[in-house]
Automatic annotation (TrEMBL):
Protein name: GDP-mannose pyrophosphatase
Lineage of the organism: Bacteria, Pseudomonadati, Pseudomonadota, Alphaproteobacteria, Sphingomonadales
Keywords: Hydrolase
InterPro entries: Nudix_hydrolase, NUDIX_hydrolase-like_dom_sf, NUDIX_hydrolase_CS, NUDIX_hydrolase_dom
Pfam families in alphabetical order: NUDIX
Catalytically driven reaction(s): GDP-alpha-D-mannose + H2O = alpha-D-mannose 1-phosphate + GMP + 2 H(+)
Amino acid sequence: MPHDLIESRTIFVGQFVNIRMDIVDIGTSHVDREVVEECEGVLVVPVTESGTVILVEQSRHLFGTTYEVPAGAINSGETPIEAAVRELREEAGLKARHLELLSSHVNGVHMSGRNYCFLATGLEGGTAAACDADEEFHGCAEFSFEDIAKLIDEGKIPDLRNRACLWRAQLHFLGAV
């Protein structure tokens, strides 16, 4: 059962996240809780007919070169599936005949933005990929799930959102879920 909110104030406003301080009644006392308000987003795991996964290679400020699934924020007025179609086209230059919602999740218990993880199959070439102006995009590459495990071990897929979606897709293909 959620705690009773006593007071809430925003302490930081950013491009992708806001941070607020909540005072909540947990039954025995009032406590401060930092809450990260993220925008909602999508992640798309594009899997080819041969079972390889197409990942986007990017440069990230904190990590250098990373490999990621096509992903991004859900724009105002857009549904998660519409955002998934757009991100797959923008970042990988692909269209999918089939999009299946694999999961939805928040990134942590003190974070509010929901992420939707989609599996994209029946891939077709679309338009040329183009990243956002604030990203350094290097292209796309195909990897087996075994190769992806090595990329994770090497720190080339550093964030848990990508890892979780890739693991969920792998479980899907193993018939474990």
